User: Fold this.
Amino acid sequence: AGWAVSLVVSTFWIRFVVGCPVWPDVACGFVSHLIALSVLWLEPRLMIPIGLALMGVCVGLMLVDMAFDLVIIREGSVRLGPTTVTPGRLVAHHYYHTMLNATHINMAMWTAMLCLVLAAARGLEASRGTPQVRLWVWLCLQSSSTNCVYMYFVIPRYLAIREAQAYDAAAFDRWWEVLAARAVLLASICYAVTQCMRLTLEQSVAPELQRKRAA
Assistant:
């Protein structure tokens, strides 16, 4: 049910609220939902490795983006060659404009965000009646809230840059808001990683303790 709600709401938001075209945005969202749906049929014990791998992808992309964020905020310049000095905002514009118009990048990020939520929901369902249920509840809330932060604070700025026909320095005004949102997301993901590692240790130690008690 949650998967279906996500598909309907996100499709409506992308197409009618944001005004994105059916191709590639709506189509990519639909395909990403189909890919993420496979998570619901996997064994619960695979949720943690999948979550860690996906969070690694998200962290890697965010760290690269943050390098350009810092160039924008510092109002720095980038030397391209021995004599050419280019404003940092212009370099960031070319980077973001290229990345945001790459269908495979958008689909990878969309799929990762969906899979994180569905993996947490799958883990929560499997952990009912166990001491780990509270931790899975937190992971569900954490993954859902971080997605909302990303959609509210970052995506609108990205869309403005992606649709721009020419470089506009004003598009990067108050970019510290994007960096702040990204820092919150990074901290949240790092915390989720520690919790997943904790669950992994508990799952690996629990059978050994049970064997010792039985002996």
